[in-house]
Specification:
Its cofactor is Ca(2+). Belongs to the paraoxonase family. Helix content is 11%, strand content 44%. The protein has 353 residues and is mainly beta. The model has no long low-confidence stretch (mean pLDDT 91). It binds 2-acetamido-2-deoxy-beta-D-glucopyranose (4 copies) and calcium ion (2 copies).
Length: 353
């Protein structure tokens, strides 16, 4: 009798895991192929071959691009080379990228940049905040940008026990930011977390005086950005294939206004400064990203969301490719009719819309 119960329990357990695995395959679009949507005027950016995970463009048209991410579960073509931050001036006729020099005293060998966000203070000094994973930990590095010298001066490293598995940040003021945590476990239990869809990831508010979780319950919180009027925060939940629109309160807490379902795995978000539209860099099929195969590579997809705050946001595809041109798009950013598309580990694309 005991044996029968044990067998039944084992069977039920295996069935549950099997069912969860099938659900997970559905959730990460394991069966999806993309239909191409390719603007006429696009070319790959020379000098960016090993990732361009995040992009942030200043109001002046200077774009910062983080490159060389090494992160568990995602491919990397240059595992022995440190990451870099590149600069591109979108005002130029044929913009080219240039690696930014980083000041001495910062450990460049272990630099592993992930999400980035810029901040301009009242004296017009530009700061670049970078999520860094030195030795697979998570820190936030603050740099001052020296435009003339094309260099970054390292000012500070921020560490905190709640700043774990950080994916992206959005800076709100001097040393104040929201950060997303994209997974809870940092060991093999991360698989359990994905399969069981535990939803233990969150958004953290950080300031020198106060650090707190301001929103939780995400499958895997990823890209984060702020609306042009600074009242709303947009967060991509990559495993839930949606964008959460959150209202920001005076005490920095966030409350959810709505969720926009997209049916694709949303990575990083940016906002078109001219229109307020959200641009989302997406992974059409995550299995192809997680199990990299040069014969059948992961594709790329960029969505534009108009009127995100309205009853009926309009969603259109700005770019889609099966991986023959661009693999693993993670971010898209626009500046005056020019579109930059970055990827987790592959090249980057420049389009004139
Ligand atoms: C974009 O998404 C990818 C995949 O999650 C992530 O590795 C990368 O850090 C993101 N980039 C930014 C700028 O947030
Ligand atoms: C990308 O990485 C490969 C392998 O390490 C290296 O040979 C190549 O120069 C890198 N390309 C760029 C543009 O950094
Ligand atoms: C980069 O910085 C280093 C040390 O700060 C300096 O020696 C080097 O000349 C700089 N390179 C460029 C291209 O400015
Ligand atoms: C991707 O699309 C191109 C045409 O755009 C086609 O030639 C190629 O075979 C496709 N690749 C895969 C893996 O489906
Ligand atoms: Ca970012
Ligand atoms: Ca991201």
């Amino acid at each position: 009798m005991g044996k029968l119960v044990a067998l039944t329990l084992l069977g039920a357990g295996l069935a549950l895991i099997g069912e969860r695995l099938m659900t997970l395959r559905e959730r990460i679009n394991a069966y999806r192929e993309v239909e191409p949507v390719e603007p006429q005027n696009c070319h790959l950016i020379e000098g960016l071959e090993n990732g361009s995970e995040d992009i942030d463009i200043l109001p002046s048209g200077l774009a910062f691009i983080s490159s060389g991410l090494k992160y568990p579960g995602v491919p990397n073509f240059a595992p022995d080379e440190p990451g870099q931050i590149f600069l591109m001036d979108l005002n130029e006729q044929n913009p080219r990228v240039q690696a930014l020099n980083i000041s001495d005293g910062f450990d460049k060998a272990s630099f592993n940049p992930h999400g980035i966000s810029t901040f301009i203070d009242k004296d017009q000094i530009v700061y670049l905040y970078v999520v860094n994973h030195p030795h697979m930990e998570s820190t936030v590095e603050i740099f001052k940008f020296e435009e003339q010298q094309r260099s970054l001066v390292h000012l500070k490293t921020i560490k905190h026990e709640l700043l774990k598995s950080v994916n992206d940040i959005v800076v709100l003021g001097a040393e104040q930011f929201y950060a997303t945590r994209d997974h809870y476990f940092t060991n093999f239990l991360v698989l359990l977390e994905m399969v069981m869809d535990l939803r233990w990831t969150y958004i953290l508010f950080y300031s020198p005086r106060e650090v707190k979780v301001v929103a939780k319950g995400f499958s895997s919180a990823n890209g984060i950005t702020i609306s042009p009027d600074k009242k709303y925060i947009y967060v991509a939940d990559i495993l839930d294939k949606n964008i959460h629109v959150m209202k920001k309160h005076d005490n920095w807490d966030l409350t959810q206004l709505k969720v926009i379902q997209l049916g694709t795995l949303v990575d990083n978000l940016t906002v078109d400064p001219d229109t307020g539209d959200i641009l989302a860099g997406c992974h059409p099929n995550a299995i192809k990203l997680l199990m990299y195969n040069t014969e059948d590579p992961p594709g790329s997809e960029v969505l534009r969301i108009r009127n995100a705050l309205s009853e009926k946001p309009r969603i259109s595809t700005e770019y889609a490719n099966n991986g023959s041109m661009l693999q693993g798009s993670s971010v898209a950013s626009v500046y005056q009719g020019k579109l930059l598309i970055g990827t987790v580990f592959h090249k980057a694309l420049y389009c004139v819309l």
